[in-house]
Design goal:
Layout: E1 2-6, E2 12-18, E3 21-28, H1 31-48, E4 53-58, E5 64-71, H2 78-89
Antiparallel strand pairs: 1-2, 2-3, 3-5, 4-5
Helix pairs in contact: 1-2
């Protein structure tokens, strides 16, 4: 399943889910947005004591994406809870 969301501060998100796997991709178009996203990820990691795999890809000096990946086992909802908390911090 794939879902796209647009944020008010010119950031776009994409969620990809399969059985036991979630990938949350955040596309940014300025260095300021990139720093904001990185700060909110760090805040959410500390708040939830949960640390997904984070991959950053630059397309140019100012644009790129940050991908967060979580493998879930059984009925573990921590990955989904993490992404919901991050979305709230990003004001989506």
């Amino acid at each position: 399943m794939k879902c796209n969301l647009a944020l008010e501060n010119n950031i776009e998100t994409e969620v990809r889910m399969e059985e036991n796997y979630i990938r949350f991709i955040i596309y940014y178009y300025s260095n300021n947005d990139k720093r904001t996203i990185q700060k909110k990820i760090e805040e959410t990691e500390k708040f939830m004591n949960f640390f997904p795999l984070v991959v950053r890809q630059s397309n140019s000096k100012e644009t790129g994406s940050i991908s967060l990946e979580v493998e879930q086992k059984g009925c573990d909802r921590l990955g989904g809870d993490f992404f919901e908390e991050l979305l709230q911090k990003l004001k989506v």
